[in-house]
Amino acid sequence: MEEITAQYESFYHEKGRYKGILSWLMSTDHKRIGIQYLCALLAFFSIGVLLGLLMRLNLIMPGKIIGQETYNRVFSVHGIVMIFLFIIPGIPVAFGNFFLPIMIGARDVAFPRLNRFTWWTYLAGATLVVISLFAAGGAPDTGWTFYAPYSIRAKANITLAVAGVFVLGFSSILTGINFVTTIHRLRAPGVTWQNLPLFVWTLYATGWVQLLATPVLAITLIFIILGRVFGVGFFDPAKGGDPILYEHLFWTYSHPAVYIMILPAMGIISEVIPVFARKKIFGYRAVVYSALGIASVGYFVWGHHMFTSGMSDTARIIFSFITFLVAVPTGVKIFNWVGTLYKASIVGNAPMYFALTFIFLFSIGGLTGLIIGSLEPNLHLHGTYFIVAHFHYVMFGGVGFAILAGLHYWFPKMSGRMYEERPAKIGWFILFVGFNVLYFSMFILGYEGMPRRYFDYPPRYFTLHLVSTIGSWILAMGLAIIAGNLLSALFRGPKAPADPWGGRTLEWTIPSPPPAENFAETPVVRD
Amino acid sequence: MVRDAVEREDHIGSYGTYILIWAALMVLLAVTIIVAKVEVSKYSVLLNLFIATVKAGLVLFFFMHLKYERGFLKGLLLMVLLILASVIGLTFSDVWYR
Amino acid sequence: MGAAEGQRDRIGAKYGMWFFLFTEILFFGGMFILYAVYRSKYPAEFHASAGEENLLLGSINTAVLLTSSLFMAVAISAVKKGSYRLSVVFQAATILMGLAFLAIKAVEWYEKVARGIYPNSPVLDKMKMGEILFFGLYYVMTGIHGVHVFIGVCVISFMVYFTLTGNVTQENYSKIENTGLYWHFVDIVWIYLFPLFYLIT
Amino acid sequence: MILGPSNVGGKIETSFLIITAACVVLLIAVTATMLAFIWRYRRARSPVAEDVEEKLGLEIVLTVLPTVLVLGMFYFGWVDFDYIRNPPKDAMPIDVIARQWSWSFKYQNGRQTDTLRVPVGEPVKLIMTSEDVTHSFFIPAYRIKEDCVPGLKTHLWFNADQTGTFDIFCTEYCGLGHSHMRAKLIAMPAADFQKWYGTKEEAEGGSKGLELLQAKGCLGCHTTDGARKVGPTFRGLYGGKVTVTTNAKERTITADEAYLERSVRDPGADVVKGFPNIMPKLPVSDEELREIVGYLETLGQDDDHARRNGHAAHD
Ligand code: HEA
Ligand code: HEA
Ligand code: CUA
Ligand SMILES: [Cu+2]
Questions:
Q1: CA–centroid distance for D179 within its chain
Q2: How far apart are the first and last CA of chain B?
Q3: Ligand 2 pocket check: which of A42, A45, A55, A467 to mutate, most ligand atoms within 8 Å of Cβ?
Q4: Quick count: other Cβ atoms within 10 Å of Cβ D298?
Q5: What's the pLDDT at D315?
Q6: DSSP-derived 3-state class of residue C59
Q7: Which residues contact A43 (CB under 8 A, 6 or more apart)?
């Protein structure tokens, strides 16, 4: 496809109703909104990382730096920030907003003003969460899961934090609606369901999960607030309530939520690998169906978080069975990515490094997911560091590395500048080593019985905690190199061409950064 | 876009149909109250839920024009209801056998 | 197409609204799950407590809401046919019906609160567990439904304004059409709440 | 079959090892294939990519194979599950009561302790519940756990195979003292157990007051040996100086009898400096309170209150 020269100014110079900073804050341009989301996300992510490092530091000398009460608040806030503020909105709102309309040849999303509104709701929700940290009463200390009845009795600022998460959920739902509608309505001629870019497909599946799962969380959180403020005892055994029902409702959202995180990540990987392997993805249709399969089956496995909750044995067996079924479409995806490398011509750029490590780390995370999804091992491993290791592997090894892959892959397009390869790869290597030192030791800790959310522990676990903490420092170093490299490229990098990687999707046909309305004229895709 | 040609001409419901539907809804309301008061059988609760579903169907298909939508939207609605039903079912696999 | 045109994509807007209603189905679904579980645990208490509800007011309210749905449907057809005057009249009637619903609901709540039955009240906390849950669910479900009715009333008020100022017209009626979808949906929720709280005696 | 310190532990360990082995094999297969492709088809060796035709047959194999594999794993996770979950009829029942942040074990003859003692070679059934929020009872050595849910009875069972002392952890987050909500399990020879079971309780604690502290769960938050837990230690408390916050004002008072009683009856009235105001109002009769206070008075006096409470409890 021939290159469209920029008759438009770049969207950085949008001339609208507003000037200066307001031209960003009030803009309904999906690209500007995407970039603002990205900045907000990275800011909250940094807070989460710092809290993570603080926890690790405490765990090698319990009580020396922070007390027990502080530790409980720190891991709760770490979880809340990482899950609700960073990783769930994560890829869709940042990369999705920026690239979804471009990839389907549209000028914007279906409801640009709604898009702007979701950004403000996101910020409002995040602000509420942040206020809850500092207001009298103190930061929430319930863990990110807000288990009742503890969350109904605890004295900390749980009402505020929960209200914040509710608002964030609202924002997430509206984003989902917006994306699903966009994909249905705004595809350019020739962009069909059969050749839709895979990233768009995963956003579509994610949109549905957001739409159908988040409201369940919303109502659950309302129950918590009603319980705290009005004494409505839905989960209070003294009033006939059933605490296990809370867990059901919570995980009915929060398991599908892990697929809200991972599906778009898989989308990024499905874009990056074919580009750097210089060929089409192996089994396009299988990859699409597996995304839809994960999204739909993933809705019905929530009970695997509750194998030791006192739930009926019948339900445990059913949920374990369905849990194993989810692994099949995921396996199909892994096989297809690996299959794409066959007879390829692999170019080793940083995005590809991150994408390939994604496959390895996510496989470890996912396969350990199967171990804890089995009925018997779960009795042992639930509530231990094995779980902590599992979800950090899938969430950072998986989603985190996918974000890093996407960040490097799309950096030239978003910023108009190129980053340097060498530091990126050095950073990648250190991150990879640190990551495994940090989290693999947690598998062993968990197997030996170290419970999670413990501020203090019997001395026999000390060595592994020490190893893990040292890993966290290595990892932080790697992350710093990566971040420093990208930041300096943002200001000093050389100008990026329209298509530095040889990408095939529509965003590479327009200049970097893309002009205000993306396309001079609606593109027509012929396959 | 071509694929929307059918939907371009939007259905305009006639006042008469609406009034008929309304009348039917009122009759069903009366029936459901009677069923509950007379307590014909212990299944009256189920019967009432069934009547509610008929009422909801009338509102959906006529007031909300679902009857004139493409199968696509009907399919999606069905999917959503099935998901809700499955969630309730799975929850009861715990509640009933605990 | 594109940003500006996307705004006028009537079918897109309608899909968006339907998707939102799907969300609402699961939102209320969460409450229905709670209801179903507790009712299966405490059938006798639920049975007994439902007798305390004011069937007359509940039935009137159902009729009011169903009628409001009729008015709304007529108002939309009127816009599509270009009879804006008629539409405004029926929209106003819908709003009145909505307010009447809320007023009757308020009377019902007031009756109960006057008897000391409200969440965390000393009277209620002394009752049986199933009854505490029944009335808790009653307040929460009708309360959240009431909030939806209230939001609907507000939105329809805007529609009246839009119809009068020519913002909603025969050619551009997405807004009112979607408002209608929302209003009818809220009606459907009530259609289920009514038997669950008033008719299970 | 792997034997462990208990029957269920061995079974769970076996299933864990089988499933883990399968996962490791899969991981190695996937990773090795990936690395081999990366090596063989890197730019330098394979300058031009060849598009491979989609093969439906291969896709089907790649879907069916994992399905079979996961069903196998599910099966190995399930085989002994029914055995593990269903206690034999003759199992000795012991009530487990969890509360913030301590455990109580009640035997059938009414004996109540904070250490779980079981006979080796006899099945034991734990009937568990909680008095406040959700906790989880976990014996790492036996590889079993189950939540203790308020308003609900859950159960676990096992048959100890070896004598020994094992950890008990709480693994469901339950608030401030969660990480200190630990206890010990002592598996003892059946004969020793019978002897212990038969003797009267006085033999162990010595004092009625200490028993009450145990039974009421005070020792979940307080210690008698000078270590700081969730609350201040009782050692050296009586007669010493305490800095407390009363109605948002700080003052230093002497810990006399009246103060001790007030601390239990109305814990929020005087909040000890450096501690959160979280002590619950526990049901204690006047009689019992006198016993408790009497016991606390025997724990000596220590004026250096700051040192006493600055010391953190580490195992
Ligand atoms: C991105 C997030 C993410 C993802 C994708 C997953 C994916 C999976 N998770 Fe995970 N999980 C979490 C985030 C995630 N999880 C979090 C945050 C928690 C803890 C919450 C808390 O308590 O705080 C958790 C907890 C958790 C538990 C509860 C543990 C407990 O508390 O007792 C379980 C139990 O079944 C589980 C299972 C699984 C399974 C089976 C998958 C599957 O989807 C994985 C599928 C992937 C693979 C199978 C690997 C790749 C495939 C191959 C290499 C091909 C070959 C393999 C086969 C054919 C088998 N997870
Ligand atoms: C996305 C989610 C996320 C992330 C990123 C992290 C990051 C970290 N986490 Fe954790 N963690 C959780 C989610 C997350 N965490 C959750 C949900 C819990 C459970 C809370 C609860 O129990 O309620 C938890 C709990 C938890 C515990 C257990 C606490 C306990 O049970 O007592 C520990 C212990 O060490 C820990 C450590 C860390 C460390 C050291 C880091 C970090 O410092 C690691 C540093 C960062 C990386 C690995 C980089 C990955 C890269 C990216 C994500 C892309 C970023 C892009 C750019 C930089 C441009 N976390
Ligand atoms: Cu009890 Cu944690
Ligand atoms: Cu899960």
A1: 8
A2: 55
A3: A55
A4: 12
A5: 34
A6: helix
A7: none
Query: For C151-183, what is each residue's pLDDT tens digit?
Result: 999 999 999 999 999 888 888 888 899 999 999
- Which two structure tokens, joined as six digits, stand for A4? 């469209």
More confident: B9 or A203: A203
Do residues D83 and D11 make contact, with C-beta atoms less than 8 angstroms apart?
A: yes
| Among A69-78, A131-140, D292-301, the least confident range | D292-301
Percent of chain A with pLDDT over 90: 65
Look up residue D294 and give its two tokens: 């009497």
Residue-range definition of the domain harbouring residue C183: 2-198
What's the rounded Cα separation, in Å, for the pair A164 and A157? 11
User: Which residue matches tokens 């969380």?
Assistant: A217
Q: Which chain C residue's Cα is nearest to A111?
A: C7
Q: Structural domain tally of chain C?
A: 1
Provide the number of structural domains found in chain D. Answer: 3
| List of residues 6+ apart from A330 with CB closer than 8 A | A290, A294, A366
CATH number of A3-509: 1.20.210.10
Range of the domain at D264: 205-306
Which tokens hold the place of A229? 């403020």
Instruction: Examine the domain organization and report whether D103 and D190 are in the same domain.
Output: yes
Taking only the tens place, the pLDDT of each residue in A290-315 is 999 999 999 999 999 999 999 999 99
Contact D70 CB / ligand 1 (< 6 Å): yes
DSSP A111: -
- In Å, what is the CA distance from C196 to each residue of C44, C63, C133, C183? 14, 16, 14, 21
Helices (H) and strands (E) in chain B, counts: 4, 0
**Which of the four pLDDT bands, split at 50, 70 and 90, describes residue C3?**
very low
How far apart CA C154 and CA C186 sit, in angstroms, is 14
Q: Is the CB of A352 under 6 A from ligand 2?
A: no
Q: Does B78 touch chain A (CB under 8 A)?
A: no
Same domain, D177 and D146: yes
Q: What is the pLDDT of residues D102-151, one digit of tens each?
A: 898 989 888 888 889 999 989 999 999 998 899 999 999 999 999 999 98
Residue D167 parent element (H or E)? strand D164-170
Q: Which atom of ligand 3 is nearest to the CA of D134?
A: 1
Residues near D188 by beta carbon (within 8 Å), at least 6 away in sequence: D117, D118, D119, D120, D163, D196
Do D171 and D221 reside in the same domain of the chain? no
CA distance A353 to D31: 14
Inspect the interface and report whether the beta carbons of A449 and D169 lie closer than 8 Å: yes
> D15, A377 in Cβ contact below 8 A?
yes
Same domain, D225 and D274: yes
Q: Give, to the nearest 10 degrees, the angle between helix C129-165 and helix C55-81.
A: 20
Taken in order A43, A48, A54, A56, the sign of the CA dihedral is: negative
- % of residues, chain D, pLDDT over 90: 37
Q: What is the mean pLDDT of chain D?
A: 84
All partners of chain B with 3 or more CB pairs under 8 angstroms: A, C
**Contact criterion met (CB below 8 Å) for A8 and A520:** yes
pLDDT at D175 (0 to 100)? 87
Is D99 within a domain? Answer: yes
In chain A, % of residues over pLDDT 70 = 96
Residues D171 and D239 in one domain: no
Residue with tokens 């496959």: A359
Q: B-chain residues within 8 Å CB-CB of C191?
A: 52, 55-56, 59
Contact yes or no for A294/A263 (Cβ under 8 A): yes
DSSP D72: H
Q: Are residues D134 and D72 in the same domain?
A: no
Residue after which a domain boundary falls, among D171, D198, D225: D198
Helix axes A462-492, A401-415, angle to 10 degrees: 10
A472 lines ligand 2 (CB under 6 A): yes
What is the residue type of A112? P
- Longest Cα–Cα distance in chain C: 63
